[in-house]
Specification:
two-stranded parallel ribbon, alpha+beta, two-stranded antiparallel sheet, 85 residues, 1 helix, single chain
Length: 85
């Protein structure tokens, strides 16, 4: 059974047809405040990993890059005199 992707614009499932040859690439940004503290923060990474494992099972090469950036936590600390970095 081929992989089908839900298209929210057409409200239909469509077959997954790779645009480019070679590894299938996926980049995901994970906000650090949602990674370990909330169950909802694990839904996105888990669904991506399930899709990647299925693509690998189908024999496709995959490349997965995850960026966990901790930006914004120093915004209120900027003028307190101590260098936080």
């Amino acid at each position: 059974m081929p992989l089908q992707i839900y298209n929210s614009l057409t409200d239909q499932k469509e077959p997954f047809n790779p645009v480019h040859e070679g590894p299938k690439r996926h980049f995901m940004f994970v906000a650090p405040q949602f990674t370990a503290t909330a169950i909802s923060g694990t839904q996105k990474p888990m669904s991506v990993l399930i899709i990647l494992r299925y693509l690998r099972f189908c024999g496709l090469k995959t490349l997965y890059v995850q960026n966990i950036t901790d930006v914004g936590h120093l915004m209120g600390d900027a003028d307190e005199g101590e260098d936080k970095l």
